[in-house]
Amino acid sequence: MKDKKFELTVIFLLCLTTIILFGLYLKKDSENIVLKLKLKDQQQKTKRPISWQKVKSSSESTQVEQSEEGEIESNETLATQKEKPSSVKDMTTIALMKEVEEKIQNKESLNLPMTNRGIELAEELIFREPYIYAAYKAKVIFLMVKEFKLLTSIDEANFEATLEQMSEFDLVSDSTLRDEALLIAKTDSELEELEANIDSMGEAKEQLEEYLARSESEAEKTLLEQRIVEIDEKLEETELEIEEISFALENDLADMEALGNQDLIELPFKRNLAREDFDQVVEDAEGLLEEFPHFEMAYAYLIRALELSAREEEAFMILAESSLSESQKTKVKRYLRNISDQNPKEFWKQLRFR
Fold first, then answer.
1. What residue numbers bound the domain in which 10 lies?
2. Is residue 174 part of a domain?
3. 262 touches 232 (CB < 8 A)
4. Could you give the CA distance from residue 27 to residue 179 in angstroms, rounded to a whole number?
5. Statement to judge: residues 217 and 265 lie in one domain
6. Are the C-beta atoms of residues 292 and 209 closer than 8 Å to each other?
7. Both 237 and 270 in a single domain?
8. Which residues does residue 169 pair with via DSSP β-bridges, in sequence order?
9. Tally of CB atoms within 10 A around 67
10. Which pTM was predicted?
11. How far is 180 from 53, CA to CA, in rounded Å?
12. What is the pLDDT of residue 74?
């Protein structure tokens, strides 16, 4: 009888140990979402995305056909819908897409109810059209607005599951879709600023040319002509800068083709920097480098997290002790410079939809 009790006790302890170890494994596995995304990104993918614009154009065409057949709602019904937001399940796909676009375009002014509705809209789109990659991007953007702009907690499992779903898409076989797939804007804001400068300089040049045409003073004409020449030179410099930035963006797209969806893998790093969870960034980066020892992005985030943790000496030694080539080290420094120039808590503003 004692032997039987002893045997049962041993079996119980073995089962308990197995459960504990399995739980620890799951905890470790779930914590390093970056490594999980990278591993999934390396796998052969069969999930081909559909372009947001393609679905939107198709839905608009369908809506036009229905309107021509007289299948349109009355003005009274439309007025009622404007007064009270529709249930997302009752909305047409094109209406869902247009509202998502509008909300993301104004994401810096969203409040909590608007953001929650944005999440609901994105989830309904994913349910209806599971191959629209941009719908998953929209959901991630709304979740990050909720967490970092509105300082409201989000469902961690839901967020990670969305990233994992995104990592299953094959984004590298179509250049248009690669461009649409980029989640983190790397050059868009700078390009927009430069293009705005060109517009301003163009307007200033037109005004000067009008003054020049009316001027009767030779001295004034000389000054105006000199100023116009200066603007032309500045316009030429700015246009050249736009070309260089556009070329850099093309290289980012080429990187996606060669290295996979790094953009998606970068998001958890940015999120943990914003949360000031530097230890998690270090842990994730080190785990990633164990499997992918030449992954430049991981080195950059490891170094930055160490710097922000006041571990500058360790950060300094990372590249010195690495086996990276000089060109790889240069790329790490480029990543690091971009990371260091940004306010970690405002990364959600960089998230691009289209």
1. 2-31
2. no
3. no
4. 34
5. no
6. no
7. no
8. 47
9. 11
10. 0.68
11. 9
12. 47
